[in-house]
Amino acid sequence: MLTILLINGPNLNTLGTREPAIYGTVTLAQIFTLLQKRGEELDASVESFQSNHEGAIIDYIQQKAERADGIIINPGAFSHYSIALRDALAAVKAPIIEVHLSNIYAREEFRHRSLMAPVCKGHIVGMGWRGYVLAFEGLVEIAREQQQSQEGNV
Ligand code: DQA
């Protein structure tokens, strides 16, 4: 069974009530449940972590990423300025998909750049909660392909 980490950064604990016109009304707990259900079908488990603290997210990545098969991360505002978080992600061997609920390119200019994007395998924006499901499905396929090619190389 694959293990996928779902990591959410600052203010994403308030999904559901936070600026619903931008981020929708689905909560983080509901997104986690959706992924768990999809995971049962895809034989993949999901572990969820959210923090408003940059260092706590970095600690979590350092502790967990080595044994994970993939990471879905919405770094929230850290996307736009945290070199420390980017460095932590750059050191991860497993594939990473960055998700943003909103279309960051259609918003304020300071949101147009993600420091994380260059160290991620893929990037999904503007699809609301669905972006997490799409990231999960894609990541499971990518992780399986990587496992198969590693087995083929042994
Ligand atoms: C966000 C976009 C960020 O710019 C913002 O700071 C967030 C949420 C998104 O999911 O659309 O907190 O990551």
Please provide a written account of the structure.
By secondary structure, the chain is an alpha/beta fold. It has a single domain, classed as Rossmann fold, CATH 3.40.50.9100. Helix content is 40%, strand content 18%. It is built from 5 helices and 5 strands. It has a 5-stranded parallel sheet, sandwiched between helices. The longest helix has 24 residues. The chain is globular, with a radius of gyration of 15 Å. The two termini are 20 Å apart.
Quote the beta fraction: 15-25%
* Low-confidence spans: none
User: What would you call the shape?
Assistant: globular
* Strand arrangement across the biggest beta sheet: 2-1-3-4-5
- Averaged pLDDT: 97
Q: How many alpha or pi helices?
A: 5
Features:
154 residues, alpha/beta, Rossmann fold, five-stranded parallel β-sheet, 40% helix, 18% strand, binds 1,3,4-trihydroxy-5-OXO-cyclohexanecarboxylic acid
Short description:
The protein has 154 residues and is an alpha/beta fold.
Task: Summarize the topology.
Elements: E1 2-8, H1 20-23, H2 28-42, E2 44-50, H3 54-64, E3 70-74, H4 83-90, E4 96-100, E5 122-125, H5 130-153
Parallel strand pairs: 1-2, 1-3, 3-4, 4-5
Helix pairs in contact: 2-5, 3-4
